[in-house]
Amino acid sequence: MTGKTIRLTMAQALVRYLAAQRSEIDGKDEPLVAGTFAIFGHGNVAGMGEALAAATDVLPTYRAHNEQSMALAAIAYAKARNRKQFMACTTSIGPGATNMVTAAALAHVDRLPVLLLPGDIFASRLPDPVLQQIEHFGDPTLSVNDTFKPVSRFWDRIMRPEQILQSLPQAIRVLTDPADCGPVTICLPQDIQAEAYDYPAEFFAPRKHRLRRPAPDAREVAEAAEALRNAKRPMVILGGGVHYSEAVAEVRGFLNKHGLMAGESQAGKGALNWDDPHNLGSVGVTGSSAANTLAADADVVLAVGTRLQDFTTGSWALFKAKPKLIQLNVAAYDAWKHNALPLIGDARVTLPLLSAALGDWKVSADRAAHGTAEIARWRGAVDAATAAPKQGNALPSDAQVLGAVNRKSAPTDVVVNASGGLPGEMHKLWKTRDPKGYHMEYGFSCMGYEIAGALGVKLAFPERRVLALIGDGGYMMMNSELATSVMMGAKIDVVVLDNGGFGCINRLQQACGGRPFNNLLVDAHRKVDVPIDFAAHAASMGAIAEKVANIAELEAALDRAKTSDRSHVIVIDTDPMITTQEGGAWWEVAVPEVSTRKEVEAARASYEKQMAARSGAAE
């Protein structure tokens, strides 16, 4: 060190800078970057590996088994921590890097922070072509890391060690910005990682980051209040932004004061406890009959912190009365969607201002009574669908499995899922009792997220029980971080629902008129039947594992898992054809216009009818 500079390699400087970033959480000073997942190879072991090894006391490094799943675990951590903390992930070049592209896409869709640090080819180009290097004949500047550009909020390639002085602050800006939040990719050529530079000492001074809470424009508040006051049949939709702005208390107070009823998106579920009198339940394609009934005739819809994807809106066919839409969102991009009245601001700040503008206004007694009656009917349907079978040992439904897990879980337990038929069943039927008790990745619906995500949630909430629910298809896609959870002592409980393949898509295929084909294992091209022993596989990775035959045995196994000393996997066979019929709404899936199958022709006619009905509602 000379004067006010510190001579470090670029990798050492990057690590030191990340370790200096702090986050204020509930008045406490915490690390902004909670740790680094790393799988080392020839593109990062010498540079980043050496730098991380020397900094484990301030920036812990975790070893994973798959680059995609370690990035998914990091993303789940950030989601669980309400985006106030995040993790970094470093890989070698080539397949190690591109394995993270799927995770980057997930984080981009879900607006979640993760810092991706893939190794890259030599900036000098002297050893070209190196192992795992693609060679673009017309552009020698390209590497596989250019594939991250469309799925990153911020992307850079460091070609000189001093470039991080400009790049890293911009990366942190994006990772901590509530409106622009998403994945950041900084590509690190392996020779530049090892080059030294005299960095200004002040670059490494600790810096505290606080959640920015932009207030709304007063005119937008007044316009939203006027629209609500004039509404006869209003409703609210709650999205993930409610959690990220930590506005749960404000949402509950707002609904209670004004008598409004709310439906929840997948990301918004948990904002209200399942038995809250204002909770209509899930909304949209996987929605409750209560939420969807009120949505169908709503004349004003206040959407709080949601990007209103097609599952939430029933492909925009749900709102049959053509309501006026108010979009309360911190991101202007979302607030301006679908010709909405924009209400741009942080939900925690904005809802009290909107409430003050409404004064003592409340929804009509008739509208409130209508919502209460629909809620009561829906809760009866939930209890019926999730009840344990009264007799026999037939294959249970997903809903019956959910009922068992729900009954055997505590309010603060966290349930994790992402793909298959389970998201629809869980959105409808899971009884949330804690704002962070429901962790669903349904923006990208990434098969295999469940076990990796559960690991990330457990790192975020070591004091909570974390339960991953996963289908056999998702388990086969990605399961390696089960071994990581055992190795790290980060206990998770996993329930594998084995329905013999991709049961959800098999049902969708037939709903579109297709014959069962290539989804269930029995309908796939095969020469040999090889039953997969999921319990034996899980046990081989160090987990406690068992297979149960029915719901009663599942409940007993869940009790055992609660007190087991390491990750515990329970496998149960389920019926691939049963799904909860109550609730739900249309979802647009294009059906072939020409087919030799009468079933496809009938499905196409139904599709065209739904399209025409939506067009009529949109006029």
Automatic annotation (TrEMBL):
Q: What's the protein called, per UniProt?
A: 3D-(3,5/4)-trihydroxycyclohexane-1,2-dione acylhydrolase (Decyclizing)
If you read the UniProt record, what top EC class would you report for this enzyme, in one word?
A: hydrolase
Q: Keywords on this record?
A: Hydrolase, Thiamine pyrophosphate
Species this protein is from: Dongia sedimenti
The lineage's top-level taxon is Bacteria
Classification via PANTHER family: 3D-(3,5_4)-TRIHYDROXYCYCLOHEXANE-1,2-DIONE HYDROLASE, THIAMINE PYROPHOSPHATE ENZYMES
According to the entry, every stretch annotated as the Thiamine pyrophosphate enzyme N-terminal TPP-binding domain falls at 50-132
Alphabetically, the GO molecular function entries are:
3D-(3,5/4)-trihydroxycyclohexane-1,2-dione hydrolase activity
Residues forming the Thiamine pyrophosphate enzyme central domain are 221-352
Domain Thiamine pyrophosphate enzyme TPP-binding: start-end pairs: 420-571
> What does the sequence similarity comment in the record state about its family?
Belongs to the TPP enzyme family.
- EC assignment: the record states 3.7.1.22
